[in-house]
Design a protein that fits this description.
Elements: E1 8-9, E2 12-13, H1 14-43, H2 50-75, H3 82-108, H4 113-156
Antiparallel strand pairs: 1-2
Helix pairs in contact: 1-2, 1-4, 2-3, 3-4
């Protein structure tokens, strides 16, 4: 069974929506790296903690993946786009299970049930948005893949 695809993202073309997602991801990652460096400068971090280094490494890897996503869209190549698609899919899986984890948490603690219900529905909404954005990303990936195949066939005279 093929995965669902869309032709546009609300009122944006897939390419535009993909570039916007990529630019937002790059911006967030750059701000995260900058804040990490600035906080370490302010704290004069002298301990040999590897915790902060892992955070910086993961954020830097995410930055490279986001840049590769934008590069893949601009150059119409699918291979640089694939890591972003995979990481986004992992995020969707997390957002699918998160409402149920919160439901389990609020049912096993003495927390306010109204608060737990509100958080559950909010997380369901966020999970739905994450799922939709992944479908948009996948649709763009398939669109670029079709363009790549067409260009390859034109070059080979098929």
């Amino acid at each position: 069974m093929p995965l669902p695809t869309v032709n546009s993202c609300v009122c944006l073309r897939l390419r535009t929506a993909g570039l916007v997602m990529g630019v937002i991801a790059i911006s967030v990652d750059l701000v995260s790296v900058g804040l990490f460096v600035r906080i370490n400068q302010l704290n004069h971090n002298t301990d040999n903690s590897t915790e902060g280094i892992w955070e910086l490494a993961v954020t830097t890897i995410c930055l490279v993946i986001a840049v590769a996503w934008v590069y893949g869209i601009i150059c119409e190549k699918t291979s640089p786009m694939l890591p972003f698609l995979v990481v986004s899919f992992v995020g969707v899986i997390v957002f699918v299970f998160l409402p149920f984890i919160s439901l389990f948490y609020f049912s096993n603690t003495n927390a306010d049930p109204i608060k737990g219900t509100i958080i559950f529905f909010f997380l369901c909404y966020i999970g739905g948005l994450a799922g939709y954005t992944w479908v948009v990303q996948y649709s763009l990936y398939k669109q670029v893949e079709e363009i790549t195949i067409e260009k390859h066939e034109e070059r080979n005279g098929v």
